[in-house]
Automatic annotation (TrEMBL):
PROSITE patterns: ABC_TRANSPORTER_1, ABC_TRANSPORTER_2. Signal peptide: none annotated. This is Amino acid ABC transporter ATP-binding protein. InterPro entries: AAA+_ATPase, ABC_ATPase_HisP-typ, ABC_transporter-like_ATP-bd, ABC_transporter-like_CS, MetN_ABC_transporter-like, P-loop_NTPase.
Length: 240
């Protein structure tokens, strides 16, 4: 579903992604961990071309992300993204936040879009908040709206960039639970998170990044108990 083949990215002189090789299968849940500044967000943002790569090849479902001929809007329709700061439109109701893209981008009828929105609000556990405004919701609820908004476009892939980092601790669980059920349903997910419990339990594969490189990858059981690389070992020991 996603393939990085010798991908490099620079910000000016700064080499932020170094020879990234990574293949993510359909239905796979990949968790990316690593120190702050290691390039995790940049890697994620390359997938939907919020950032452009400098060289190498990056394909999503067989389509070259960097190709001039690639329809970027079509590509992005297939990729939902959830950020640390929920990025909801504050002046729109929850329902409006969720129906906006399906109506504007996918040309859904308002009725159809509302039905889809309610379906996903149900899924994330807050159908009663459809008419509320973001400021009337807790952080956990706002993030669940953001997930519902992503899902309403019926994406093939969901990207999560530290979705629980801005939340009060008591709200982390409700967001992770939604992500867990999404994973169980077979969504292809790439998740940057510091929630190691989630990684252990839900990830098919853990990727450890440092200084723009994939330093180590493996299944969570192996990675968390027997990391091979010194840098990974140090990173994990600092978390405990
Ligand atoms: P992470 O998500 O792992 O914390 P990022 O991908 O956000 O790391 O950033 C990786 C490195 O790239 C950092 O050193 C950061 O300062 C730098 N960086 C990120 N975005 C930009 C940008 N737009 N311009 C220049 N440098 C950037
Ligand atoms: Mg980041």
């Amino acid at each position: 579903m996603i393939r990085f083949h010798h991908v490099n990215k620079h910000y000016g002189q700064f080499h932020v992604l170094k020879d990234i090789n990574l293949e993510i299968q359909s239905g796979e849940v990949v968790v990316i961990i690593g120190p702050s500044g290691s390039g995790k967000s940049t890697l994620l943002r390359c997938i939907n071309r919020l950032e452009t790569i400098t060289d190498g090849e990056l394909t999503v479902d067989g389509v070259s992300v960097g190709d001039r001929k690639t329809n970027i809007n079509e590509l992005r329709r297939d990729i939902g993204m959830v950020f640390q700061h929920f990025n909801l439109y504050p002046h729109m109701s929850v329902l409006k936040n969720i129906t906006l893209a399906p109506i504007r981008v996918s040309k859904a009828s308002p009725k159809e879009a509302s039905e889809t929105a309610m379906y996903y609000l149900q899924k994330v556990g807050i159908p009663d908040k459809a008419d509320a405004y973001p400021s009337q919701l807790s952080g956990g609820q706002q993030q669940r709206v953001a997930i519902a908004r992503g899902l309403a476009m019926k994406p093939k892939i969901m990207l999560f960039d530290e979705p629980t980092s801005a939340l009060d601790p008591e709200m982390v669980g409700e967001v992770l639970d939604v992500m867990k059920s999404l994973a169980k349903e077979g969504m292809t997910m790439v998740v940057v998170t510091h929630e190691m419990g989630f990684a252990r339990e839900v990830a098919d594969r853990v990727i450890f990044m440092d200084h723009g490189q994939i330093v180590e990858e493996g299944d969570p059981a192996t990675f968390f108990t027997q990391p091979k690389e010194e840098r990974a070992r140090q990173f994990l020991s600092r978390l405990n």
